[in-house]
Structures are given as structure tokens and as C-alpha cells.
Amino acid sequence: MRSEEARFINHLELAELAAVPAWPARIGILNDYVRVPHANGSSFASQFLYREFKKRGHRVTVIGPDDPDTLPCDLPERAVSFVSLPLRNHPGVHLALPSQRRLRRLERENLDVVLAQTGSAMLEAGVWLRARRGVPLVCVNTIHLPSVYNVILPESLYRTRADAALREHVVPWLEQQMVSAYNQGDGLVVLASGLKRYWEQRGVTVPIHVVPRAVDATVFDAEPGADPFPAAARRGTRLLMVCRQTREKGVAHLLEIFAKFVAPVVADATLTLVGDGPDRDTFAELAKRLGIEQRVFFAGEQALGRIPMFLKHADVFVYTSLSETYGQVVSEAQWCRLPVVALADGMGVSQQVEDERTGLLIDPTGDPEQVKWRFAKGVLRLLHEPRERERIAAAAWADVRSRARVEVSVERYYRAFAAAREHYQQSLERAELPSEIRSLARWTGLHLTLAGMGLLRAPGTINRNHARQPSWDSSRLKAISFDDGPDARPGA
Q1: How many domains does the chain have?
Q2: Most exposed of 204, 317, 324, 371 (fewest Cβ within 10 Å)?
Q3: Which residues have a Cβ under 8 Å from the Cβ of 364 and sit 6 or more positions away?
Q4: How many other CB atoms are found less than 10 A from the CB of residue 48?
Q5: What's the pLDDT at 6?
Q6: How far apart are CA 23 and CA 10, in angstroms?
Q7: Helix or strand or coil: residue 28?
Q8: What is the pLDDT of residue 452?
């Protein structure tokens, strides 16, 4: 390790932890999974917050949907799960539904605040608990609906009138449902300043807090380990992208960029894609049609602990997604001293990369072929100029260790919780509490509708490597601990 890096790390180790407030003592985290079946940035962030809050002495309860494949070791110490329906087109995803027994169980947790780290209608559980028991609610925006809505469409309907109808009518309606739920809470956390403007423009009136995600140093400061790349991927020309293999991530565009502008210029260049998803086979077929199947490697989903190995043995990280509320993997690449070339999304990625200093941001507007060429130029520049790679990587390394510190993120959540408590008290004075029944009806209706829409597309393969993701307490396997009888167990 370079001496300047060691000095920087020692400085961070001496930094004080975020001051732990007396309130809240009991925190609820709403999450789309109680078992994390595949790589998911939002759930990894929930697990990280769960561990950090527990470390600081809070009692933390995870709230999510039942999952029939859950084992005791997959669960957090405290959990409340709801009866659920599977989202057929996305194996591993379950849509929670309210029930009287589970709602009573949730009440008995006596939570002080709820953090709704979910993009589903399950955040209505937080709205209901706020109305029922006066628990302040802080929501987190975890998905960009205009980018991800088409995941439910089969290939035959993609970019057809059905696609256009969803984009023009269904997405704005869904966004307004989100706005309504957010405004019935006490605060909204967004991960980038661009998204603060986005939701303000759509009508969110509760306080909005910008809280970028922290990088888990216990994972990403690990030694590089054995080289995970195939022998055909020569050092010095390795491009890497880590993401779910779905349309909205821009993987098809990246394959076209590589085939048309990078592979013909750099004879040894290779592209490795880490991740899995419903469109993985489509992308593999595209690589074959483009004639680059021998230079594109589909590594599949990897356990979180293996991701640093790929980042630390790669040469350039490439990211063509425009759907990110944050895009945590960009900060993780920078943490591992890997230079980044990405599209400027005006949202999460743009929050993490300063063009020409901590990475290269490519303007995504204008003629699509020109955008591809601009992106390729950035990639080729870094492949041809090792010193430039090192300059950008070093600047990004120092920057991310300042802005993505755990203490910074946790302190911002504490501020959001305090502001939510104040907002709730003010709402009592204005008699603005939402209806419990309306919240449960909207929750049920939206998830039944989504479950039905999930039938439109055949199930995809999400994790063909069977990579096992971390448990909530990754340091050891947990026994389930509940204090109020057998009906408290998930699935009861």
C-alpha cells in the first residue's frame, strides 16, 4: 500500500463516530426482502444501515415480505414479515400484502421511527403505522420508475405501443402514487441532489434529505485476492461493468460501443460483465451477432465479497446505465482505485463522478451514435494512457474516502430522523394524519396489480451461479429471536 494511502486510512480510523442520539431507540427498516436472494444495491444498503445502527446501540427490526426459501440464518435478529405473492417474472421477488395478524405484530415492535427503504407499495406499511401508532416515517427513493417500468414487458412488446402506453400513462400514475405516499410521511431521503429536484417538481412537499450511500470498508478494503478474470482477459485492457442484466442498465449500448469503437482499435481489449438477470441471454446473443462473443465474458452474479476482486484486478470501469437513483458500484469502483467512464445521468452517477477529475462523465444527449463514440473515446483514452488512468483513479480514491465515510452517512440519517419527528408533531397540530384504511387498500391494490402484470413476461434466470449474498449479520449466523410468541415468526 502506498504511504499516502496508509496515512489517509489512519486519519479516517481516528475520526469520531457519529454522535448517537437518545432517540430513536427502536428503528424499523422496511425492505423489499427479508432474505436477500440476489445482488441488490438497495438491500445491501439496508443491511449496512442495519448493522451500523445496531453497532450504535439501536434495536433494529427489518420489515418485509415472506419468502418461502428463507432459512433462519438468512434473517436479521428481529424481523416482521408479511404474507406475499411472488412476482413471477422476477424470481426471488415477493410482494407483501397486509394481514391483521402481521399488522398487530408490527405494532407490538413499538418502533420510534420507520425508514422505508423500498420502492414497492410496502411503504404503505409505514404510512399505516404512522397513522395507527404515531410512528414518524422517513421514505427512501430507491428506484427511477421511468427507467425500470419496462422490466415487466416481454421482448415482443418492448418498444411497441404497449411500451409507449406504459411510459406515457402508467409511469406518471405510479409516480403520483409514490408522491402521495411520500407526502403522507415525514421526510424523503434521496441519494443525489438531482433527485431532490426531480421529486420536488412532481409534488413532494415533505422535507427532502440528500444522503449518498456509504461504502462498506469491511468489504472493499479487503486484499485483492486471486485474479478472477479468465486467462483470455489480458491485464492492461480489461473493461468491467457490474450490474443487473436488465434492459434499463444500458448493457446493449455498451456491447455496441465495444464492438464498433473499442475492439477494432485495441486488439487485446476485453469486456467482463458481472451480474445476472432476465436479459442476460439476450445480451449474450447480441454479443454473438456483433462478433465479439470471444472478447465478452459473462461472469454471472458473484457474492458481494468477490466484487472487490474484480474491481481491483480490472483496468477501467464502464457504466452505461441511466436508471440509477445512485449506482453504488461506481463509488465501490473508485474505492478500489479503478477509474470510471460513465454516462452523466443528472442523478446518482453524476453525484459521484466529477468529470475529468475523479472520472469521465459522457453527455448522453444528442445523436445516439455520437453518444456511443464519445463514450468510446473516453474508454480508449484511458486504455492508451496508463498515467491518466492512475491520475483519475488516485483523485477518485481520495474523494470517495471523504464523501462515502460511514460516519457522514449515519449522521445524515440521524438528522433526517430528528426532522421527521418534528414534522410529525407539526402534522398533529394541522390534523393531517392519513387514513389507515386508505393506506391498506392502496397497498393491496398496487401489489395485486403488479403481481398480475408480472405474468406478462416469462421468469428470467436471476442468479445462475447460485452466489450466496450476505446475511443481515454477516459476521455470524443468527438464530431467530422473538419475544412475543410463535405468531411472530416469518410465515406465521
Answers
A1: 2
A2: 371
A3: 322, 343, 344, 345, 371
A4: 22
A5: 40
A6: 31
A7: strand
A8: 80
Residue 42 shares a structural domain with residue 108: yes
**179 within a domain of the structure (yes/no):** yes
Which residue among 376, 403, 430 closes a domain? 403
Domain assignment present for 5: no
Residue 172, domain member (yes or no) = yes
- 422 pLDDT band, cuts 50/70/90, is very high
Model confidence band, residue 52 (pLDDT cutoffs 50, 70, 90): very high
Span 224-250, average pLDDT: 94
| pLDDT over 60 at 15, yes or no | no
* Euclidean distance between CA atoms 359 and 453, whole angstroms: 39
Residues 64 and 175 in one domain: yes
Say whether 19 sits in a helix, a strand or coil. coil
**Is pLDDT of 2 > 60?**
no
Asked if 224 and 254 sit in the same domain, the reply is yes
Per cent of the chain over pLDDT 70 is 86
Q: Which domain holds residue 363?
A: 217-403
Same domain, 93 and 182: yes
List of E strands, 246-395: 270-274, 296-300, 316-319, 340-343, 360-362
The verdict on residue 335 lying in a domain is: yes
For residue 195, name the pLDDT band (cuts at 50, 70, 90).
very high
Residues 255 and 175 in one domain: no
Closest CA to 239 of 198, 213, 284, 269: 269
Distance CA 489, CA 66 (A): 10
pLDDT at 70: 84
Average pLDDT, the chain: 86
**Helix and strand element counts for the chain (H, E):** 18, 15
Q: Flag the least confident range among 58-62, 193-197, 361-365.
A: 193-197
d(C-alpha 378, C-alpha 342), whole Å: 9
Query: Which one has a higher pLDDT value, 421 or 73?
Result: 421
Same domain, 39 and 171: yes
Which of 373, 403, 433 delimits the end of a domain? 403
Share of residues in the chain with pLDDT > 90 (%): 64
* 300/344 same-domain check: yes
Q: How many residues does the chain have?
A: 492
3-state helix, strand, coil in the chain (%, to 5): 45, 15, 40
Domain CATH for 359: 3.40.50.2000
448 and 318 in a common domain: no
